User: Which sequence fits this backbone?
């Protein structure tokens, strides 16, 4: 499949109803959604941050009808985003599965586009009750048309005592210790065709993929779905990203992806999970928060920042940086724009800008002046007293209107949390680490990298820690430990400490 050079993987903080509107129709190959189940508040509120609580209150202010209406609105919009060859897999449990299938999926996709009801069967401890144990979820698979992507899945088998060569007969195989009876039509050199009951265990407490997210789905579950209904280079969307399993697996399998969640903690945990698995060959992605990181904006590539902020402002950035008189873009009516990626802009910038816009288009400048229109825009983080006074003088004395625009008037941004990390030796090779962080919105959680290097970047060993304290043993040698504190707006700050362990050998 040809590479889409204009596409960037995206991790978006926000209500998916709004975020989906920014996605092009007929552009997504596969949608997997695991929306909050129709159960109760104790079970549903996982992260507990403001965005998640607000969403919970929105979808459960009424009964089942309100919940179905809330979900229908979103699934209908997702349907528009699917390519004609695309599929949707909707994950749910017994609380509302019948309503979801009949009142949402059949109505939107049509009953004829139902493909499978996949049963995810698992084992777990449940409290004693007068009912049978509920040990499965449902995943409804619908395609947008009859022409949909389908890659058959196979499960391994071992030969039994009956020969496979007897055509038209049933043959006995073993899947592990479980005997299977299959016909000739279901067997292949690759194995036995996969069925619609998937026995995949919950993630073990000690598993490497566990991140501390209580309803985290196994990577194997998403591997099967993504391999079944998409190809390498296809685009996968998860509008309820949660702990990030879908996008993490899609990334590993060479798919493009978009992940959305209303919880800042869910988005940042997913971000850290991606950082942990990324290497030099991984595709980049854009992290879209409600507020941008001031320090990242100030230190980003100057030309990229100019183009980005002009687009956000509604203007048209220059394609090239040559022969532009020092101007960086224009509005749709050709009014010039200049961007300064700095604070406290002085009068000299205004003087130079005025000369530049006159040189670039004298007729437009004089026309705007005569009509009392804005002659140009200067965008910066802040403006000094000299610049503000000169803008007023130009308007009052020369009828020339220059508009000063702060970056904060275009996008919201915040400052990184202030973080301090200390290390205390509690045994020969054991240390206790304490992180303290301050942020105006408040700190949500911490992540830890116990073998940090500047070359590899932040690769968290612990993704989700609410306490800010960790204890760990190390082998002899020098070690660098890094902690990342994440605030309630998803902005993070980091501190590092080095320790050296030298045990004298007797």
Assistant:
């Amino acid at each position: 499949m040809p590479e889409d050079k204009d596409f960037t993987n995206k991790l978006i903080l926000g209500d998916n109803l709004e975020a989906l509107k920014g996605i092009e129709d007929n552009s997504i190959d596969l949608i997997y959604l695991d929306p909050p189940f129709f159960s109760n508040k104790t079970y549903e509120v996982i992260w507990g941050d403001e965005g998640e609580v607000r969403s919970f209150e929105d979808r459960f202010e009424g009964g089942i009808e309100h919940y179905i209406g809330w979900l229908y609105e979103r699934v209908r919009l997702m349907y528009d985003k699917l390519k004609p060859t695309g599929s949707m897999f909707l994950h749910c449990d017994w609380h509302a599965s019948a309503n979801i299938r009949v009142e949402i999926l059949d109505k939107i996709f049509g009953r004829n586009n139902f493909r499978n009801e996949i049963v995810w069967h698992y084992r777990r401890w449940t409290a004693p009750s007068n009912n049978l144990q509920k040990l499965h979820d449902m995943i409804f698979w619908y395609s947008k048309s009859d022409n949909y992507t389908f890659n058959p899945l196979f499960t391994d088998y071992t030969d039994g005592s009956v020969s496979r060569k007897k055509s038209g007969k049933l043959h006995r195989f073993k899947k592990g210790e479980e005997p299977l009876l299959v016909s000739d039509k279901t067997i292949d050199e690759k194995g036995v065709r996969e069925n619609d009951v998937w026995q995949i265990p919950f993630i073990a407490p000690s598993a490497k993929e566990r991140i501390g997210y209580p309803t985290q789905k196994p990577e194997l579950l998403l591997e099967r779905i993504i391999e079944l209904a998409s190809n390498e280079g296809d685009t996968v969307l998860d509008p309820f990203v949660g702990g990030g399993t879908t996008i993490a697996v899609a990334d590993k399998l060479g798919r493009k992806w978009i992940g959305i969640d209303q919880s800042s903690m869910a988005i940042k945990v997913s971000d850290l999970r991606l950082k942990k698995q990324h290497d030099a060959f991984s595709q980049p992605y854009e992290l879209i928060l409600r507020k941008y990181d001031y320090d990242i904006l100030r230190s980003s590539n100057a030309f990229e920042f100019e183009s980005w902020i002009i687009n956000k402002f509604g203007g048209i950035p220059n394609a090239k940086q040559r022969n532009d008189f020092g101007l960086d873009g224009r509005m749709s009516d050709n009014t010039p724009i200049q961007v300064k990626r700095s604070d406290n802009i002085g009068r000299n910038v205004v003087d130079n800008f005025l000369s530049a816009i006159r040189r670039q288009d004298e007729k437009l400048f004089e026309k705007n002046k005569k009509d009392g229109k804005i002659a140009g825009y200067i965008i910066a983080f802040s403006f000094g007293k000299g610049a503000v006074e000169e803008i007023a003088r130009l308007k009052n004395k020369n009828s020339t209107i220059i508009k000063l625009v702060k970056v904060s008037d275009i996008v919201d941004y915040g400052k990184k949390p202030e973080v301090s990390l200390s290390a205390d030796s509690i045994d020969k090779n054991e240390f206790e680490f304490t992180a303290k962080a301050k942020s105006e919105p408040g700190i949500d959680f911490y992540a830890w990298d116990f073998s940090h290097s500047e070359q590899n970047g932040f690769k968290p060993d612990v993704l989700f820690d609410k306490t800010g304290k960790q204890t760990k043993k190390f082998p002899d040698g020098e070690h660098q430990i890094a902690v990342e504190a994440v605030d309630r707006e998803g902005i993070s700050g980091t501190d590092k400490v080095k320790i050296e362990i030298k045990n004298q050998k007797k």
